[in-house]
Write a structure and sequence with these properties.
The strands form 2 sheets. A 3-stranded antiparallel sheet has the order 4-3-5, with no helix packed on it. It has a two-stranded antiparallel sheet with strand order 1-2. A hairpin with a 2-residue loop joins strand 1 and strand 2. The protein contains 19 helices and 5 strands. 71% of the residues lie in helices and 5% in strands. The protein is mostly helical and 437 residues long. The radius of gyration is 42 Å and the shape is elongated.
């Protein structure tokens, strides 16, 4: 469209010039000029051409003068442009060096970007990260602190200061920085989880739940993480309510925790116990079975048995068999059913389930049960000793292990009793036998 307009404009100007030339040719005339003793005789077209030439000459001179006067400014602007381009290149290369862990290059490029770019808000993050990478914590803290004073970089400054505080183990200071960063309301990938964990470790569960509510509004936590953290908070609220004698609140919170994350074993066990206490045995059993199907665990077997502690051995076999049928692949179910069958003197059933357990996950405990079976069923001490001979080389029993410090603990807790990491205990087999907790 633009070339067409330019062509039309050219044609229009040309038409005007031709029309003017024709008009002047049709109206010849003479002009005489007397000036300073001089006389000039010429025609009208020549005079008009001379005037136009003079105007163009003056315009050319003025343009040349302006160009000469503007030359220093243009040179300075070009130099500033080069400095800015070089500064941005140093900034991007420096951030790449930080990501790659190249301390020397990061510091060098940070100094170069600082020198070339006038806006320190652009270079502050690179300088802080380069200082942190080089181990200059004081400089990193100073840089991040300076960033917090500027509105456009306050969030990055607070987040960086929080991470430095976490690295030096100052959780109180980290919590303060996290709160201030969260209050800015900016997109905060990862900040919501960190703030929740810091509040939880400080025992501030009400504030932690409020953080989850806000995180849901901002959509900055995945649905699974949000529900899992909600379950942790509700579980701890139930524990506190029970300790303070608020039974109804404890039960309601426990049930909500189980509903939020059915894979949280501790929540299912607590919900089942409190439901049983409230006379709701069917709901208690259903809570256990729901979690057993997703995350089988010996504690769920114990919770199931605790619903009817006065049952006969045969009745207990039937109760545990419900769990085995709900999740036939769960090794802990076969072990528990075999142990119940031993107590009920159901030798064949015990042997069947122990054989399945040994095939799927042989452990010292399973071999001990097989030895017991040989002794109680046929009083075969030789066979019992043969099974016991496997104990020393058997894999260790699964245990609660901390994913942060690697230490084991007797039972689940919301935080590791050794390193206090939140939600770090996993039920799994250790690589080596664990020392006493």
């Amino acid at each position: 469209m633009r070339p067409v307009r330019r062509l039309l404009g050219f044609v229009l100007v040309l038409a005007v010039l031709v029309a003017a030339a024709v008009w002047l040719a049709d109206r010849p005339g003479a002009v005489t000029i007397h000036w300073l003793g001089w006389r000039v005789d010429t025609s009208v077209p020549v005079l008009i051409a001379a005037i136009l030439a003079a105007v163009l000459a003056v315009a050319g001179v003025l343009k040349a003068v302006r160009a000469v006067l503007a030359a220093p400014g243009r040179l300075l602007a070009a130099r500033r442009g080069r400095r800015t381009r070089d500064g941005y290149r140093a900034l991007s290369d420096g951030l790449a060096a930080v990501a790659a862990g190249d301390r020397k290059a990061a510091r060098k490029l940070s100094h170069r970007a600082d020198r070339l770019l006038a806006d320190q808000s652009l270079t502050g993050l690179l300088a802080a990260q380069a200082a942190e990478l080089s181990g200059d914590v004081a400089e990193a803290e100073r840089r991040f602190g300076a960033m917090t004073a500027r509105q456009e970089t306050a969030f990055l400054g607070l987040k960086g200061s929080m991470e430095l505080a976490l690295k030096r183990g100052d959780r109180d200071q980290a919590l303060d920085f996290a709160r201030r960063a969260w209050a800015l309301g900016q997109p905060a990938d990862g900040l919501a989880a960190t703030l929740f964990q810091l509040q939880a470790r400080a025992g501030q569960w009400a504030e932690a739940e409020a953080t989850l509510d806000e995180a849901k509004k901002r959509d900055c936590l995945s649905g699974a993480d949000l529900l899992h953290y909600r379950a942790l908070a509700l579980h701890e609220r139930s524990v506190l309510a029970e300790a303070e004698g608020r039974a109804d609140e404890a039960l309601a919170a426990a049930v909500k925790a189980h509903q939020a994350d059915p894979m949280l074993v501790a929540a299912a066990v607590r919900a089942a116990r409190l439901l049983h206490r409230a006379g709701k045995e069917r709901k208690a059993a259903q809570a256990i079975i729901t979690t057993w199907q997703a995350a089988p665990h010996p504690a769920l077997v114990e919770a199931m048995v605790a619903l009817a502690p006065a049952e006969t051995p045969l009745q207990r076999v039937k109760r545990i068999d419900r769990l085995v049928k709900a999740n036939p692949d769960a090794v802990d179910g076969h072990v528990a059913l075999a142990e119940a069958a031993l107590a009920a003197r159901l030798w064949g059933q015990a042997r069947t389930h122990l054989a399945l357990a040994v095939e799927k996950r042989p452990t010292a405990g399973t071999y001990v049960l097989l030895a017991r079976l040989e002794r109680e069923e046929g009083r075969d001490e030789a066979a019992a000793q043969a099974w016991l001979g496997h104990v020393a080389g058997a894999p260790p029993e699964p245990a609660w292990l901390c994913s942060a410090c690697g230490k084991g603990t007797d039972g689940w807790a919301v935080s590791c009793p050794h390193c206090h990491a939140l939600d770090s205990l996993d039920w799994r087999q250790p690589l080596l036998a664990l020392p006493p907790a």
